[in-house]
Amino acid sequence: MHEQAGLLFSTCSNSTCSNSPSSHSPPASPAMITRIPLRLAMLAPILCTLLFSALLAAGGDVHAGKPVEFTVRMLALDANEGIAAGDVDGDGVTDLVAGRQWFKGGDWAARPLRNIDDWNGYVQSNGDYLFDVNGDGRLDVIAGSFLPTEVYWYENPGEEALRLGKQWPAHLLKDTKKSQNEGQLFEDLDGDGRPEWIVNSWKKDCPMMVYRLLDRTGNSEPASETTQATGKPGGAKKAAAKPENSAKYSLVGHTLGESANGHGVAVGDLNGDGKTDVLVGQGWYEQPQSDPWGQPWIFHADWDLHSSLPMIVTDLDQDGDSDLIIGKGHDYGLSWWEQTEPDKETGKLSFEIHEIDSSFSQPHSLAWVDLDGDGNKDLITGKRYYAHNSRDPGGNEPPCLYYYTWDQASKSFQRHTIDEGHVGCGLQIVAEDLNGDSKVDIAVAGKSGTYLLLAQ
User: Fold this and answer.
1) For residue 219, what pLDDT band results from cuts at 50, 70 and 90?
2) DSSP per residue over 51-75, as a string?
3) Residue 112's domain spans which residues?
4) What's residue 218's pLDDT?
5) Is the pLDDT of residue 407 over 90?
6) Which residue among 159, 300, 381, 413 is least crowded, i.e. fewest CB within 10 A of its CB?
7) Compositional bias (Polar residues) spans (predicted)?
């Protein structure tokens, strides 16, 4: 069921939908009716209730494995493509942040967050990440951009300012001096419980940079400036400096490699040594067994791709090694890569490529989560609508959003339609329980709109 501009319209997944009277089954004939004793009929509701309670007590999901349908609601329409979920106002309910606005869980009304300039069919922001930067117990937003080199954090102004619809003060977290940024991941690479800022560049010969969040409490580092982020290429317009920097953390860069990058990024233990590696468009960086921030990482040029952000690293076929799920971010193609025996002479990793879907283009962002409650993770992806402003193959085709269930016996995926014609992807996909009903919901932001999809 869709809710948009006050209108409701239905969508069906893996089935035929019709509102015509002819679509209903005809009345049962007397020959089709089986008479049930009254006493047994009266017991039926009680037995069903007991069975349902037993399933819940056992931790079961009565909807496990069944196709999932969603109520779809448009929240905003602009060129923003970043989105994240978290409890922004501290009321115990999950909210959404998406570019210029945040959306309060429950009513989902748009509220101001920050200013972002439009730029050549995009906005100058390539993702939203929630983190308590100043240690005040409230979630702030960290965001970078495509061409500007600065990373900003936007300070959560607190309950009263949020209630009044005030914008969030912008602070410079780091000027990386690096441009041509496709996007980033915010993942813990070294296992210390704190995420790293992992920046991917579409340019193959750009350095591969990872930035650590280091606690600056007690350090004599210079205070950052409060700025008005204009989003214009070349940086942000500086405003008056605050007398002190309220950020608890500094971003400290580490170069994994000087000249191997390229469109697409992922993290995961690719070679089974217990360490989290970093994958990029041209290959993968192997994390050292010790002192990961004191040395470059070994680079393996095992492929040359223009891939999704992220790719998925997982043991899909359960044979003990890591496989990959990869989308072509600016072309047709979604596939899984089955890891096979490495080359005996060189040790180079080898893969057998299996097609998942080639019917739509620009599967730029992927999510890997148990969507239907059967205990197995599912793949969520769709079209990054107007990713290159119609210049990609299939760029003018309608947006779409799908999820895929994995069948271990046949080693194949089955596609399920979430939406076609309205909802597409941007640079991030949120997949978690957003309304407290223990079902996994979805939120996306892209050029077809910012959407909330609540599982039914």
Assistant:
1) low
2) HHHHHHHTT--TTTTSPP-EEEEEE
3) 81-278
4) 56
5) yes
6) 159
7) 218-230
56 part of a folded domain: no
332-347: b (≥16 Cβ within 10 Å) or e: bbbbbbbbeeeeeeee
**pLDDT given for residue 213 in this prediction:** 98
pLDDT digits (tens, 9 = 90+) for 95-123: 999 999 999 999 999 999 999 999 999 99
Co-location of 271 and 207 in the same domain:
yes
Apex 103 CA angle, 396 and 12, nearest 5 = 50
155: left (phi over 0), alpha (psi -120 to 50) or beta: beta
E strands present in 139-273: 140-143, 150-154, 170-175, 181-187, 196-201, 208-215, 227-228, 237-238, 249-257, 265-268
- Residue 322 — φ and ψ, nearest 5°? -90, 130
Based on the structure, what is the number of domains in the chain? 2
Instruction: Give the H or E element holding residue 364.
Output: none
Residue 120 DSSP code: T
Residue 184, both tokens: 């980033």
Cα dihedral across residues 391, 397, 398, 402: positive or negative: negative
| Residue 361 shares a structural domain with residue 447 | yes
Between CA 102 and CA 81 the distance in angstroms is 14
Cβ-proximal residues to 384 (8 Å cutoff; 6+ apart), any chain: 81, 329, 362, 363, 364, 365, 424, 425, 426, 427, 446
Whose structure tokens read 């209903």?
A: 24
Q: Of the candidates 106, 109, 98, 95, which has an alpha carbon nearest to the alpha carbon of residue 445?
A: 98
Q: In sequence order, what are the residues at sequence separation of 6 or more whose Cβ sits closer than 8 angstroms to the Cβ of residue 361? A: 328, 330, 331, 332, 383, 392, 393, 394, 395, 397
What's the rounded Cα separation, in Å, for the pair 28 and 32?
6
What is residue 316's predicted lDDT score, i.e. its pLDDT?
A: 98
**Which of 257, 129, 246 minimizes the C-alpha distance to 195?**
129
